[in-house]
Automatic annotation (TrEMBL):
This is CRISPR system Cms protein Csm5. This subunit might be involved in maturation of a crRNA intermediate to its mature form. The keyword RNA-binding applies. It comes from the Bacteria. It holds the Pfam family RAMPs. Signal peptide: none annotated. NCBIfam families: cas_TM1807_csm5. The keyword RNA-binding applies. Belongs to the CRISPR-associated Csm5 family. One of its GO terms (molecular function) is RNA binding. Keywords: Antiviral defense, RNA-binding.
């Protein structure tokens, strides 16, 4: 099954790597420059007083000063020691000592890992199981943090044996890729409070990728009996239906939570600003809802920033259950979201549109 994926809002699948705004990148105007360390060192070696200049560079970094000042002082052109600039989504003044999250890349090209999509498919299969059986899944409060079970091992495996895990029959290849220069740097904020923010390098909206999903047939299938029929006939058709149902229900649930949060925050100080944030989010999801009736289109969040409800567990939790040692009202859980501001409107990031080729 071949799929097209189009980013709707900025999206990042994190590589796990970060760069520092002190020593590894420069923010100037509406550009972010990533320092190429090899180019910088080689350039410094051409200077007469290179030992002294390198010592000055070390001092600049240790004191948390802007590298741009160091480059200007020593007549080092920024384009000679940095990668081509990435555009910033907005001006960033207070960025000192911030880390910048980097996306998955290969050979300076950004892509969506097959493992990321496979994780979503796994959640959709679990989601279908719990809907079909009416069973209640475990949740994060069921076990100690240091001894958390592999969620779903009782559903996707026989006797918790990894060799029987049905996901071994689902193969997802990495997506096509885009040039690193097409990426953008965004400031994301934890709303509605906005005190916590982060810089990310992400895939902008309206970038297109293709990806392939293969479902293997095995005469010696050894997974749980519940899934045998799924793998025997029309596996790809069923998988698309399960993913579609998973997406539609969770988007409806997200809208329900956002509307509850808007009502909850309406009486707080600065409620006008908070209301606008939730209004923007709600409008975004309402626009998606209008397109959800197309059976050939699926909207899913991928990568960094998903909430607990965007998996197969949160949707099924009954109200007022203990989560991580505290009671929460699931009408408002979770109460914060990562958001990106574009043209004075707030959007949830990491949303993509998927359709069959």
């Amino acid at each position: 099954m071949k799929l097209n994926i189009t980013t709707i809002t900025p999206t990042i699948v994190r590589s796990g790597e970060e760069i520092s705004t002190v020593s590894e990148c420069i923010i100037e105007g509406d550009n972010l420059y990533i320092v190429n360390k090899d180019k910088l060192i080689n350039f410094l070696k051409t200077k007469k007083d290179n030992v002294k200049i390198i010592e000055e560079l070390s001092k600049t970094v240790l004191e948390g000063q802007n590298l741009k000042g160091f480059l200007d002082k020593n007549n080092i052109p920024i384009n000679e020691v940095c990668e081509p600039p990435l555009k910033l989504s907005e001006k960033m003044d207070d960025y000192r000592r911030k880390s910048v999250y980097l996306p998955m890349t290969s050979l300076k090209r950004a892509f969506i890992p097959g493992s990321t999509i496979k994780g979503i498919l796994r959640s959709a299969l679990l989601f279908h199981y719990y809907l079909s059986t009416k069973k209640e899944p475990p949740h994060r409060g069921d076990s100690k943090k240091d001894n958390s079970p592999y969620i779903g091992e009782d559903v996707l495996r026989n006797e918790n044996k990894i060799s029987t895990d049905i996901m071994k029959y689902v193969i997802v290849r990495d997506s096509s890729s885009i040039n690193f220069e097409e990426l953008r740097a965004y400031k994301i904020q934890r709303i509605p409070h906005r005190k916590l923010w982060q810089i990310i390098i992400a895939i902008p909206p309206q970038r297109k990728f293709s990806i392939e999903i293969c479902i293997k047939k095995d005469k010696n299938y050894n997974g749980p009996g519940f899934w045998r029929e799924f793998f025997e006939k029309d596996s790809e058709v069923k998988l698309w239906e399960y993913l579609k149902d998973y997406s539609n229900r969770l988007i409806d649930k997200e809208l329900e939570i956002l509307e509850n949060l808007r009502r909850k925050n309406s009486g707080n100080e600065n409620d006008g600003e908070r209301k606008k944030i939730f209004d923007d989010f709600i409008k975004h999801y309402e626009e998606i809802q209008k397109r959800m009736f197309n059976k050939n289109v699926i909207f899913i969040p991928i990568g960094f920033g998903k909430t607990y409800y965007f998996n197969s567990l949160g949707y099924f939790l009954s109200s007022n259950v203990p989560i991580r040692r505290k009671n929460v009202d699931l009408k408002f859980y979770p109460s914060t979201r990562w958001a990106v501001e574009i043209n004075e409107k707030y959007y949830p990031f990491r949303m993509v549109c998927t359709n069959k080729k």
